[in-house]
Design a protein that fits this description.
By secondary structure, chain A is mostly beta strands. Chain A has strands spanning 4-7, 10-14, 19-25, 31-37, 44-49, 55-58, 61-65, 71-76, 85-92, 99-100, 104-109. Chain B has strands at residues 4-7, 10-13, 19-25, 31-38, 42-51, 54-57, 64-66, 76-78, 87-94, 106-107, 111-115. The chains are: A mainly beta (110), B mainly beta (116).
């Protein structure tokens, strides 16, 4: 089946630093999505991307839909303590289900 | 709206026992699904439903049963629990299958299951 490879698996950064993570796939996706999971909660949608090459921002978050449709990137600028959590990429290839990456666990030192 | 409600939040089972994880949503969503979350594995789809009376298998369906008798409820049944089913389980719903294109999948808070 379709698989997403997300990297890095974990990040330890200082407050105020910028963060970059990415997701790659062997399959083409029509939609790329980025979710965040706070500790003890379910994932919540951050950004959705619908077109190859699309660059979308949501506050300090910026995500891009790769031109090949097989990858996506998420950047967080000027990290703050509430950015801590697990970030998941997800892809929708046209079937009735989303495929999720393994997640990137973000830890921030104040 | 309460959104997606899962019960119980925590459960400990012995190998071989059966149990049902409950999921209810009050948003009149047609699409409902169950995922399990394991360290380093991300979220893997167990079963999903595109409407009442319709269910289908996801990526890891073995050992689990589902039914969808109403729009609101989508219970997940563990038939004979095994230690490999120790995980955090999430129920998620969406307005409709076509809305997966928009990414609008709403998750519950999760149910943490331990099988001894």
């Amino acid at each position: 089946g379709q698989q997403l490879n997300q990297s890095p698996q974990s990040m330890f950064i200082q407050e105020g630093e910028d963060v970059s993570m990415n997701c790659t796939s062997s399959s083409i996706f029509n939609t790329w999505l980025w979710y965040k999971q706070d500790p003890g909660e379910g994932p919540v949608l951050l950004i959705a991307l619908y077109k190859a090459g699309e660059l979308t921002s949501n506050g300090r978050l910026t995500a891009q839909f790769g031109i090949t449709r097989k990858d996506s990137f998420l950047n967080i600028s000027a990290s703050i303590p509430s950015d801590v959590g697990i970030y998941f990429c997800a892809g929708h290839g046209g079937a009735q289900k989303l495929v999720f990456g393994q997640g990137t666990r973000l830890t921030i030192n104040p | 709206n309460a959104g997606v409600t899962q019960t119980p939040k925590f459960q400990v089972l012995k190998t071989g026992q059966s149990m049902t994880l409950q999921c209810a949503q009050d948003m009149n969503h047609e699409y409902m699904s169950w995922y399990r979350q394991d360290p380093g594995m991300g979220l893997r789809l167990i079963h999903y439903s595109v409407g009442a009376g319709i269910t289908d298998q996801g990526e890891v369906p073995n050992g689990y049963n589902v039914s969808r008798s109403t729009t609101e409820d989508f219970p997940l049944r563990l038939l004979s629990a095994a230690p490999s089913q120790t995980s955090v389980y999430f129920c998620a719903s969406s307005y409709g299958p076509y809305d997966l294109n928009t990414g609008e999948l709403f998750f519950g808070e999760g149910s943490r299951l331990t099988v001894l």
